[in-house]
Design brief:
- The chain is built from five helices and six strands.
- It is α+β, with helices and mostly antiparallel strands.
- It has a single domain, classed as Phosphoribosyl-aminoimidazole Synthetase, Chain A, domain 2.
- The strands form two sheets. Strands 4-2-5-6 form a four-stranded mixed β-sheet. Strands 1-3 form a two-stranded antiparallel ribbon.
- Strand 5 and strand 6 form a beta hairpin.
Length: 131
């Protein structure tokens, strides 16, 4: 609970400083699902993401592991140092995992596809499965 409170307070402080462009919990479905929802869920044109994995764990665990007290945020590169300072102040671990932009959903070396394809699969998944 102590870590969860620190993560939430850190995120709120970054919001108060107006440096975050988006924030999404990494809960149901893990990192891959959180990133996919970020790419296709906004009111604007879908955006891609490029993640470079450095983790030495199984691919399925990296992509779909569900754990508490993790939030994926996006911000302008010029604000990364400010976010690091906020995270340190709240004693919250922080890791830069990639960049936002383009038309591809990429988690190297595990997954790569067009964001439009991802959105189509998400939008039609249940219908396609029931046919």
């Amino acid at each position: 609970m102590k870590l969860e409170l620190a993560v939430q307070n850190c995120c709120l402080a970054a919001i108060d400083e107006e440096i975050l462009r988006s924030a999404h919990d990494v809960a149901d479905g893990g990192l891959a699902v959180a990133l996919a929802e970020c790419c296709i869920g906004g009111p604007e044109k879908p955006l891609g993401v490029r993640i470079e994995t450095r983790e030495m764990i199984r691919g399925d665990a990296l992509l779909f592991s569900e754990s508490q007290s993790r939030i994926v945020v996006s911000l302008k590169e010029e604000n990364v140092e400010r976010l690091k300072t906020i995270a340190e102040r709240h004693q919250v671990p922080m890791q830069t995992i990639g960049t936002v932009g383009g038309t591809r959903f990429t988690i190297q070396p595990l997954l790569q596809m067009a964001v439009e394809e991802l959105k189509t699969i998400w939008s039609n998944g249940l219908t396609a499965r029931l046919q």
